[in-house]
Amino acid sequence: MFQLKLAVTVKCEEELLWNQKLNYYFPFLNSSDAASKKNEFHDRNLALFEDELDIRPKVSSLLSRLVNYTNITQGAKEHEEEESAEASRRKTPKSPNMGTMMGVYLPCLQNIFGVILFLRLTWIVGMAGIVQSLLIVLMCCSCTMLTAISMSAIATNGVVPAGGAYFMISRSLGPEFGGAVGLCFYLGTTFASAMYILGAIEIFLKYLVPQAAIFHDTEPHRSDSAMLNNMRVYGSLCLSLMAVVVFVGVKYVNKLASLFLACVIISIVAIYAGAIKSVTHPPEFPICMLGNRTLVRDRFDVCAKTITKGNITVPSQLWDKFCLPGNTSSAHCDDYFNQNNVTEIQGIPGLGSGIIRDNMWGNYLEKGELLEKAGLQSVNAHGALENFGMYVSADIATSFTLLVGIFFPSATGIMAGSNRSGDLKDAQKSIPVGTILAITTTSLVYFSSVVLFGSCIEGVVLRDKFGDAVKKNLVVGTLAWPSPWVIVIGSFFSTVGAGLQSLTGAPRLLQAIAKDNIIPFLRVGQHSSDVVFGHGKTNGEPTWALLLTGLIAELGILIASLDMVAPILSMFFLMCYLFVNLACAVQTLLRTPNWRPRFKYYHWALSFLGMSMCLALMFISSWYYAIVAMGIAGMIYKYIEYQGAEKEWGDGIRGLSLSAARYALLRLEAGPPHTKNWRPQLLVLLKLDEDLHVKYPRLLTFASQLKAGKGLTIVGSVIHGNFLDSYGEMQAAEQAIKNIMETERVKGFCQVVVASKVREGIVHLIQSCGLGGMKHNTVVMGWPYGWRQSEDPRAWKTFINTVRCTTAAQLALMVPKNVSFYPSNHERFTDGNIDVWWIVHDGGMLMLLPFLLKQHKVWRKCKMRIFTVAQMDDNSIQMKKDLATFLYQLRIEAEVEVVEMHDSDISAYTYERTLMMEQRSQMLRQMRLSSAERQREVGLHSLVRMGSLYSDEEEEIVEAPPEKVQMTWTREKCEAERRNKNNAPENFRELISLKPDQSNVRRMHTAVKLNEVIVNRSHDARLVLLNMPGPPRNTDGDENYMEFLEVLTEGLERVLLVRGGGREVITIYS
After folding, report:
1. What is the Cα 1057 distance to its own chain's centre?
2. Torsion 165-166-171-173 (CA) sign
3. Given this model, what pLDDT does residue 816 score?
4. Secondary structure (3-state) at 719
5. How far are the Cα atoms of 301, 314, 328 from residue 310, in angstroms, in the given order?
6. Which residue has the higher pLDDT, 975 or 823?
7. In this structure, are residues 245 and 252 in contact, taking their beta carbons and an 8 Å threshold?
8. To which H or E segment does residue 84 belong?
9. Average pLDDT for 725-743
10. Rounded Cα gap, residues 447 and 410, in angstroms
11. Contact call for residues 461 and 479 (beta carbons, < 8 A)
12. 133: nearest Cα among 449, 597, 461
């Protein structure tokens, strides 16, 4: 009855597991169809499979459900909570209807074009020059183009749900990489929202409403701190307002996306129109120069030292700035002002002016350095510090690497198409075409903009970040047609829109990561309902994720500098793109069967090139930010790995591990490991009780202390029975062993076999465990306790048979005796000794094992002592010197002692103990013989047994089916039976007069004498390691062998019996 229930349970578990797999790999299939249409399974041609059709559906039914699949919209909805069953029945999913243009191309354009184009590109051209600016654009756009190629391959290798880059990386590289890079991508998107908000506030305070500034510096040449404080206040207010908008009505943000995109396109068109118009009619934006220095134009009215009012020449406002007010004498003026002329040059010479030659090369400045025009006459003179605020100066130190980090965010946003894969008619076609076309378009715009800015605008204006030289106008706006306000208003709305969209997307990305349940700190409780960042309010908005996003974005707002925030998000985006390329390269090189992308124009070399470019750009733009970003990703990776991400997504890293394991195993096949690399690779044989609990868990504790996470550990056990009947029991045993392995922190593998005889099962484990060169070389098994008290010899016979098998297989053997007294992993020995009794050389195992144990914290403070035995003809003093030299060459610190054992006569105690041993053996033999005769009389030819490893109930005879036996009694049989009963007293007399075998007496003498010496010297040792004698060649003496081992280890608390495997395991050579 128990087996029937077990079989039904296993069958149900198999069916449930199959349905889970079916729902995972084909989420659109309804597994309930199989149950509802059970009658169709009884097809005549499928009679062989009808018992399994409920868990293995027919191909026809599978294909019919595949055809009926409709691709449900996966935009923002994918990040939200699943709707109730009633709502899902009321709503019919919309069929995807978006094409390449609306679904991929335009969203990518909107995400790529951003604040950097309008606020910083002219400044980058002015600082780096046209040539280096083109190089910056080429590097960034090439990086994103290569990433787009890799992304297209991944995105067309199946449906990409919500999460975009996170989903692609996590399903390609595993949960550890996915979680780490997913959080990096989330942080990048969050800081992008901060960057866009700072850009919008900069436009608002600098160009739209400068009067709205709250803080003002009393010293004009130190206005940075006031501006940063204004940015912090208004940025925080703007962030709060945007967060409320996103929380209340995200659908309005999505509806306004078209308006924001229109602002971007109109602004770009206005720039091109202004550049074309400048060929014939350049805009009037004169720049006032004092010598070759650029003046802040909004601080005076006329660009001249004096003006004429009527017929009188009077000082201008500029004169009053550099001289004492009301004094027309030059003696009271600034020296530089006196010695240099004031001139006015055209700020926008136009496309045909030839200014491109002056702007071709870079002109990097240090912080506070004045903007000067090369070619204008200037007399160097010391100017007054109070007049510093009249000149346009650099607010930060610039370099090529800094500009790369500032520009790169303007090349991001290429993931917008892959995030909308569920809304597309043909995602496999639209994503590659739309993304690559969008990158091509934006790259052409950036390249042409660099050339146009360098060809139309004066160099000092380009280097003027905030337009101080052109009356506080946005520099790119001075080139636009018909008015600079087109660019100012358009860029303001586009940055606000981009900030809203980033603030909308980042919480949903965090929600997608939290729902995967791979990062424990994103959840509070243990149940799915406790995943705080994966849930939100009733309409599905991720409330907690939005709150966390707002707090992180506030950190970016408090930085308050667009130029400082841009490199931060560059790091996170570059990290994300790096792993997208890595995912594509790994999948391509592994050639996994599921890697079948529809996009064919990819290659692993391109992915590696893109990955290399991402890494190079990270360190070029900011090496310290790169290290911090990689450190964050590394810590998240190790955190997820340490917590144990129980996700199997068929990722490429798992395939890479399999390929690496195969390669390593083939390498190991070349030959056995060198002695220097030898370490015990353990096969731990465990005994299970009737409830499938591990009987001696301290065996695993000892294994974990010996291995410390290194090398191979296989934990094996034997279930007695028939495989078909005991399969469920075997699975339960495996799970029980895995649980105890996790508790004892044993890193290894578990293998449970079912055998008709436990002894045969152990032999199977010894022969077949491991794979190729990764096999065990050492067997660890427990001592058969209670063998003396048991009349059944099967327990110790299984033990001795295992010893013989390990010897035949040339494996080392360790038998921890009194293993229940061994320390747990939480105990610490602060003192004490590990004593090694080196009686015979067995390959050096006795030297190596204490050294390995002392690496563990439990045994670390124990001292090592080595004892060896000297006979009468040995020179004990020389032996001690030689042993000390040998240990010195082995680099093992240990105290050496040589114990002299003098020849002595065999004591009466030894003789008596040997006699008792043999009498006991003879008595048990006769008892077993009479028991067998009684069983024959009643016809018991088989026994019902249950057992486990070296079980006390292992059968020695071959099982036969029970049958009815008839006994025919003849006169001869009756007389023979009577004679046997009359011989019982004679057998007892023979037992009394038994003389012990001399070889047994000698062995007992050795065991007794050694035990006396060992107990005398090592009675207080924490652990005693001892050579384990081999079993006798003649199996008749097996029981005596067990007695010898008992005598040898009597009176010792913890003993480890060790047998070598027939090879040297330790060497003195380097």
Report:
1. 41
2. positive
3. 93
4. strand
5. 18, 10, 17
6. 823
7. yes
8. none
9. 90
10. 13
11. no
12. 449
Phi, psi values for residue 265, rounded to 5°: -65, -45
Question: What are the tokens at 240?
Answer: 């709060």
Closest CA to 941 of 974, 970, 966, 976: 966
Mean pLDDT of 818-844: 87
Q: How far apart are CA 577 and CA 569, in angstroms?
A: 12
In angstroms, the CA 565 to CA 200 distance is 14
> What phi and psi, each to the nearest 5 degrees, are found at residue 285?
-140, 80
The residue behind tokens 């124990």 is 862
pLDDT tens digits, one per residue of 672-731: 677 766 778 899 999 888 888 888 889 999 998 887 657 788 999 999 889 888 889 999
Strand 293-294's sheet: what is its strand order?
293-294, 286-290, 342-346
CATH architecture group of domain 675-793+805-810: 3-Layer(aba) Sandwich (3.40)
- DSSP 8-state code for residue 1022: S
d(CA 691, CA 75): 51
Closest CA to 119 of 211, 204, 241, 240: 204
Concatenated DSSP letters for 155-194?
A: HTSS---TTTHHHHHHHHH-HHHHHHHHHHHHHHHHHHHH
Output the six-digit token pair for 291: 């010598």
Per-residue DSSP letter, 295: B
> Residue 538, exposed/middle/buried by CB under 10 A (0-12, 13-18, 19+)?
exposed
Contact between 607 and 580 (Cβ < 8 Å)? no
- How far is the C-alpha of 766 from the C-alpha of 805, rounded, in Å? 8
φ, ψ at 755 (rounded to 5°): -140, 150
Measured CA to CA, the distance from residue 575 to residue 486 in angstroms comes to 36
CA distance 325 to 337: 14
Residue 899 structure tokens: 């114990």
d(CA 680, CA 703): 10
| SS3 state at 769 | coil
DSSP 860-928: TT-EEEEEEEE-TTS-HHHHHHHHHHHHHHTT---EEEEEE----PPPHHHHHHHHHHHHHHHHHHHHH
Least confidently predicted of 49-58, 169-178, 540-549: 49-58
pLDDT of residue 413: 85
d(CA 390, CA 221): 8
Residue 298 has, within 13 A of its CA and on its CB side, a CA count of 11
Question: What share of the chain in percent tops pLDDT 90?
Answer: 26
Q: How confident is the model at residue 375 (pLDDT cuts 50, 70, 90)?
A: confident
Query: CA 721 to CA 754: how far, in whole Å?
Result: 6
Report residue 1067 as tokens: 């060497």
How many Å separate Cα 1055 from the centre of its chain?
Answer: 41
Q: What residue type is 967 in one-letter code?
A: M
Backbone angles phi, psi at 185, to 5 degrees: -65, -40
Q: Which tens digit of pLDDT belongs to each residue from 476-491?
A: 999 998 889 999 999 9
- Alpha helices, DSSP H, located in 205-316: 224-248, 250-255, 257-277
Taking alpha carbons only, the member of 751, 780, 761 closest to residue 718 is: 761
Q: Which residue has the tokens 């592994």?
A: 590
Residue with tokens 């309804």: 30
Residue 139 CB partners (closer than 8 Å, separation 6+): 404, 613, 617
Q: Per mean pLDDT, which range of 227-231, 536-540, 624-628, 710-714 is the poorest?
A: 536-540
What is each CA distance from 945 to 184, 719, 755, 793, 951, in whole angstroms? 60, 12, 13, 15, 10
pLDDT, one tens digit per residue, over 577-604 is 998 898 889 888 877 777 888 888 999 9
> Domains of the chain: which residue ranges?
286-394, 622-671, 675-793+805-810
Measured CA to CA, the distance from residue 112 to residue 110 in angstroms comes to: 6
Helices and strands, counts by H and E, the chain = 36, 15
Alpha helix segments (H runs only) across 769-820: 794-808
